[in-house]
Design a protein that fits this description.
Chain lengths: ~150, ~750
């Protein structure tokens, strides 16, 4: 089947029900998207399908075909980070960093839908993304910083 | 203090991990320096085991593992400070397993010497015996919050010696006097202002003799250490470009997973892998110790096939259920299971005999480390060479263990350490690496990346031991008069030591750490450890023994203080004889504006204190009892670290550590049924999520002593008791069992 990932088209030969997570990681070598739980409980595997945050461990490859898939690698780069990534870097959110690609993808999608979030909105939107290092206070600050930056354009 | 004499005498009765191994080797071997394991490439200079310069520039070797605590950053900063390079402009590498990278501080945590004891024998034990034991055992270990204290002088000196060697090379080339040269930003500056990049001097520096001794710079001259800096790995970790072990890629890589005995047994009675072998992408299904490995062309295909293997497990060596385990713990307060009584002051029995005795029983559950990156390792067995790519805190033990599995010498096992996606102690274990080696042996020459499913990971987490504690105490005239604390637990060292190949003899400090060594002058004061034999294999979990003992010790202390009618903060201050500890209590009181535990209707404040890893740490938690449950409003943390090397990271460790402690106290436990862990994923193993994180969390690191300490673990132990004490202040309900969510609801 054909997948559109970060603006590129890939032909992959996988089962329809192979989770998109494992297509990205093991078939395409896009390892920025992380495996944490496999049951949509941790959020480390979050990617965008047509801009919407989804858990790639629960998304069949066949269901992602036809959509514009964006992974953390496609959101921005160290040289040209997305505003959410820039806020994360400036706030120095990451400790081990393993959950952060998923956190950032979740935040980027959420802030597009809710540009002026309340604290409660942030807690609700990010509550499904686990961080075992408990970087939560800086994560909250980074979401607020990113929201402000995105509003300013 | 009365306690010092007793501690000093007991110090001779040493008996944990390190010391037992040290005696056999003798002094001569301790004095012999270990060789430098680094072999220079063409045109490169290995200036010492930590600094390599070649024509491309400088590489700093940072042998301590980085599981998110910022170990690479601080090691690079210590080296760079004296070497005069910008840490952002050089490469770092973890380096190979080698005894020269032994951790001279790590063994001291196993010794029955209180951190507050600065008598000569205590110092000898900590600085001499501990160093000797760790050196003799070649303990290249990351743990015990020791990276900073171990590296503090060692790495600055390595940087300084490398700098002076480069200056000598420049002097030899130019004929200038070394004394007239200076260094700056990776270059030697000649008297006329000409700058010679270190890279250009590499070949000559390799031929120059390094100076024996270089004085270290005064901290007042530091440019990097002590300043807020941008962490080297931050941009990579926020853009998906940081590779962890699980991301290892190489030509011809095969993917694999394993399924092994879920009840810690090592045998199977039958395996039917026919269905799995026919599944798409499956290359091999192989039997390994205690189960099977599946090799495939994709991790998901391997995991799906592993589930399709029909396995009848052999017997489990552990008790059937948590209830049975608690029974075993309850029956362990006996003379023959008594492990230690390092604290025994006054006359507890006499003091209690004539008093109204308060009694309590506290429980602490098994806890999984459950870092977000599941355990994984890539292994390639090619003839007489074995390569291992994995993130590990124990590279030398792992090297020896893999060598044993494969049947080669340790020197033939090449360990390539990687960045780690969280550990909390799990990477002090290497079962997954041994399994990966067993699997990879079946496909010689092919690299195999073995990844545990989350379910496999939770089943084999080597959890933190559960604990059962019994307390008795008495108060008199508004003061705490007697405190008798008995703790039953599995021995972490006895379980973990053999897996490391390290002898574990004598009492296990971990059973009572964070309890026996607290600097309180209670007139009649006793702490006894009881060892519960056998059971679930357990290991070090962030802050190890103190992780539970902080709650046990401070929780009941709070009960006694309440019974005495005293103020929780004032009474702790009155009882505490250790000045740095009093300062952190005072700091946290000031931070929260302490004016007593009650803050109005339905609101309460709890203070707790624990000394662990030499770091006195005090925390205050403020809560509100709302209609929807308990809400944590604010957390304040103060700790004495001697000197802050990286303020941004210290703040992250202090807030993260406190929240880690709170989250587990609120929600987390591992329970057993049918000999197996019941919580096999994050849906059942609940931990802290953003909505429960307080809006206010403040950390203050004090620098009032000359004992430099690590801060990764000490913020964990006081979190649980501070929360329990706050909930008591708000609701009158005393929580004596973790997780607290069993008794109260949280917002």
């Amino acid at each position: 089947m054909e997948l559109r990932v970060n603006g590129q088209t890939y032909e992959v030969d996988v089962e329809e029900d192979m989770p998109l997570l494992w297509v990205l990681r093991d078939e395409l070598g896009l390892t920025g998207t992380k495996y944490g739980c496999g049951i949509a409980q941790c959020g480390a595997c979050t990617v965008h399908l047509d801009g919407m945050a989804v858990r790639s461990c629960q998304t069949w490859a066949a269901d992602a075909a036809g959509a514009e898939i964006t992974t953390i690698e496609g959101l921005g780069t160290p040289e040209a980070p997305h505003p959410v990534q820039a806020a994360w870097i400036e706030t120095q959110v990451a400790q081990c960093g393993y959950c952060q690609p998923g956190q950032i993808m979740q935040a980027a999608s959420f802030l597009r839908d809710v540009p002026e979030p309340s604290d409660q909105d942030i807690d609700n939107a990010m509550g499904g993304n686990l961080c075992r290092c408990a970087t939560y206070p800086r994560l909250r600050a980074a979401v607020r910083m990113a929201a402000a930056r995105l509003r300013e354009g | 203090m009365a306690s010092i004499g007793k501690i000093a005498r007991r110090s001779f009765l040493v008996g944990t991990v390190a010391v037992a191994g040290g005696v056999a080797f003798g002094y001569w071997r301790y004095r012999t320096p270990y060789p430098n394991p680094l072999e220079p490439g063409e045109g490169a200079a290995v200036l010492n085991p930590w600094v390599v310069v070649d024509s491309d520039g400088v590489t700093l070797i940072t042998p301590r593992a980085d599981k998110g605590q910022g170990a690479v950053q601080v090691q690079a900063a210590l080296l760079a400070e004296e070497l005069d390079v910008d840490p952002g402009e050089v490469r770092t590498a973890f380096g190979p397993p080698a005894p020269v990278y032994y951790n001279s501080v790590v063994a001291s945590e196993g010794m029955p010497v209180a951190a507050t004891d600065d008598g000569i024998i205590a110092r000898l034990m900590r600085e001499g015996v501990s160093d000797a034991a760790a050196k003799l055992l070649g303990m290249q270990v990351t743990g015990g919050s020791t990276t900073v204290p171990d590296a503090y002088e060692k790495l600055r000196r390595a940087g300084a010696v490398a700098r002076e060697t480069l200056k000598r090379a420049a002097a030899a080339r130019t004929g200038a006097d070394v004394a007239d040269l200076r260094t700056e930003a990776g270059r030697v500056i000649l008297p006329d202002g000409t700058a010679l990049p270190y890279a250009d001097l590499a070949a000559e520096a390799a031929e120059v003799e390094a100076p024996d001794f270089v004085a270290l710079r005064d901290p007042a001259e530091w440019r990097i250490l002590g300043q807020p800096v941008q962490r080297l790995d931050m941009a990579a970790k926020c853009t998906g470009t940081q590779d962890f072990g699980i991301d290892h890629r190489q030509e011809g890589l095969l993917h694999a997973t394993v399924r092994t005995h879920p009840g810690w047994g090592d045998s199977v009675t039958s395996i039917d892998s026919r269905a799995a072998e026919g599944m798409r992408g499956v290359e091999r299904v192989v039997q390994i110790t205690g189960g099977v490995g599946v090799i495939a062309d994709n991790t998901w295909r391997a995991m799906r096939a592993a589930e399709a293997v029909q396995i009848d497990w052999g017997p489990s060596p552990i008790a059937e259920s948590s209830d049975a385990m608690w029974e075993g713990f309850a029956g362990s307060f006996t003379e023959d299971r008594r492990d230690s009584r390092f604290k025994d002051e006054g006359d507890v029995e006499a003091a209690l005999a004539g008093a109204e005795v308060m009694e309590a029983e506290y429980r602490v559950p098994f806890l999984a480390h459950a870092p977000l990156e599941p355990m994984n390792a890539t292994v390639q067995v090619s003839g007489d060479r074995v390569d291992v790519w994995t993130g590990t805190q124990i590279p030398r033990f792992l090297q020896a263990n893999v060598a044993e599995v494969v049947g080669v010498d340790p020197e033939q096992v090449h360990v390539h350490n990687t960045m780690i996606g969280g550990s909390f102690g799990h990477r002090l274990e290497d079962l997954h690496v041994r399994q990966a080696a067993e699997v990879a042996m079946r496909v010689p020459g092919r690299p195999v990346k073995m990844t545990w499913s989350r379910e496999e990971d939770m089943a084999h987490d080597f959890p933190r031991t559960m604990q059962l504690a019994r307390m008795r105490g008495a108060v008199r005239d508004g003061r705490v008069e007697a405190y008798d604390l008995s703790i039953a637990a599995h021995s972490t060292f006895a379980s973990q030591g053999p897996r490391w190949g390290v002898p574990a003899a004598g009492p296990d400090i971990a059973i009572v750490a964070g309890a026996w060594d607290q600097p309180f002058a209670i007139p009649n004061y006793r702490v006894t450890g009881y060892r519960v034999p056998g059971g679930v294999p357990v290991s070090s979990w962030r802050s190890v023994g103190a992780s539970g003992n902080g709650f046990l010790h401070d929780g009941f202390l709070d009960e006694l203080i309440h019974a005495a009618g005293a103020d929780p903060l004032e009474e702790r201050l009155r009882l505490c004889w250790h000045a740095p500890s009093r300062r952190v209590l005072e700091a946290v009181g000031e931070m929260c504006g302490w004016d007593g535990p009650r803050m109005g209707e339905g609101r309460g404040r709890g203070v707790a204190y624990c000394l662990s890893f030499g770091v006195p740490t005090a925390e205050v938690v403020e809560v509100t009892a709302t209609e929807d449950g308990i809400r944590i409003d604010a957390v304040y943390v103060a700790a004495e670290v001697g000197r802050v090397l990286d303020p941004v990271n210290v703040e992250a460790q202090m807030t993260g550590g406190a929240l880690f402690g709170l989250g587990h106290a609120m929600f987390s436990e591992l329970t057993f049924a049918g000999h197996q862990v019941e919580q096999r994923n994050y849906d059942l193993y609940e931990t802290l999520r953003l909505p429960q994180v307080p809006k206010v969390i403040e950390a203050r690191a004090l620098e009032t002593t000359d004992e430099i300490r690590g801060i990764g673990e000490p913020p964990v132990p006081p979190a649980a008791p501070a929360l329990a004490n706050a909930i008591f202040a708000a609701t009158g309900e005393r929580l004596r069992e973790m997780p607290f969510a069993k008794a109260v609801r949280f917002v």
